[in-house]
Design a protein that fits this description.
single chain, 70 residues, mainly alpha, 2 helices, rod-shaped
Length: 70
């Protein structure tokens, strides 16, 4: 396994990486052709969106409990 710079962000990444973990730039030939590339971006986007929704729900729940106690 060799480390190479990402063409997009210059972060050091594995030459076996499917996509850059820093910016998501497709690295493998299959990713550049479009096979599964949307899956990588979609997974990252879905995970981030889910974390935001969970955080907002937790904040709302705390606010509701605080309001009901006062």
């Amino acid at each position: 396994m060799a480390l190479t710079p990402c063409p997009e962000c210059n972060r050091q990444i594995s030459d076996k990486a499917y996509a850059c973990p820093g910016c998501g730039y497709p690295i493998s030939p299959a990713a550049k052709r479009g096979f599964g590339w949307s899956g990588v971006a979609h997974t990252w986007l879905t995970t981030s969106a889910l974390q935001v929704v969970i955080a907002l729900a937790a904040i709302a729940l705390v606010a509701i409990v605080w309001i009901l106690k006062n």
